[in-house]
Amino acid sequence: MTEPVRYLSVADVARLLGVTGSTVRSYMVQGRLPEPAVIVGLERESRGWTRESIEEWNASRPGRGARTDLRR
Q: For residues 49 and 44, what is the distance between their CA atoms, to the nearest angstrom?
């Protein structure tokens, strides 16, 4: 039997990034996170991301908490 595919939840993404779940949800609303790899549920949707997509996004996102607009 093959292993099921594992996806990261909002809580998992928050833990991986070292932020709160509220911050991750804020990133989602702002369209800053990559598109989820899977959406589960009809009435109450849960989103899931691959670890690779979040790690790649995190490594390449600008600023990562720094004010890049202040640099000269």
A: 17
Report yes or no: 10 and 22 within 8 Å, Cβ to Cβ.
Answer: no
User: pLDDT digit string (tens) for 54-72?
Assistant: 999 999 887 655 555 665 5
Judging by beta carbons within 10 Å of its beta carbon (0-12, 13-18, 19+), is residue 25 exposed, middle or buried?
A: middle
User: What gap in Å lies between CA 9 and CA 66, rounded to an integer?
Assistant: 26
Q: How far apart are CA 18 and CA 13, in angstroms?
A: 8
Alpha-carbon distances, residue 63 vs 22, 23, 48 (angstroms): 19, 15, 24
For the entire predicted model, the pTM comes to: 0.80
